[in-house]
Amino acid sequence: MPSSTIELTKSSGVWAPVVHGSLDADQARAFAPMFKALGDPVRLRLLSMIASAGGGEVCVCDLTGSFKLTGPTISHHLKVLREAGLVDSDRRGTWVYYRLVPAALALLAGLLDVSSVAATV
């Protein structure tokens, strides 16, 4: 996980949803790469494929056939997801296996939680 995501997830406090207070500049800089990574349709699809994979991980060889993109392009998108701290990977022989980083998605979900506002509407 990138250091900014590590700092966010290892924080002693719980991040309040944006509806409870605005982010400071450091918080915004830490969250932005995660949102930017998810802002691309290919990366969003890749994340959903990794998250829904049986066994908790998926080989890159099982991801590439679902896209009309070259292997290097898929690898680039996976690198962006990994650098954003949303997925992690292991190399096993010639293949790389990817798995979701649940804490990162939980962090984003908590940041975007509007349930307390929705309850008052």
Describe the 3D structure.
With 121 residues, the chain is mostly helical. The chain is 54% helix and 12% strand. It has helices spanning 3-9, 25-38, 41-51, 60-63, 71-83, 102-111, 115-120, and strands spanning 58-59, 87-92, 95-100. Strands 1-3-2 form a three-stranded antiparallel β-sheet. Strand 2 (87-92) and strand 3 (95-100) form a beta hairpin. The protein is elongated, with a radius of gyration of 16 Å. 20% of the residues are buried.
Q: What does the secondary structure layout of this molecule look like, with pairings?
A:
Elements: H1 3-9, H2 25-38, H3 41-51, E1 58-59, H4 60-63, H5 71-83, E2 87-92, E3 95-100, H6 102-111, H7 115-120
Antiparallel strand pairs: 1-3, 2-3
How many β-strand stretches?
3
Helix percentage = 40-55%
In angstroms, what separates the terminal alpha carbons?
37 Å
User: Could you give the order of the helices and strands?
Assistant: HHHEHHEEHH
Task: Pick out its properties.
121 residues; mainly alpha; 3-stranded antiparallel sheet; 7 helices; elongated
Précis, in short:
With 121 residues, the chain is mainly α.
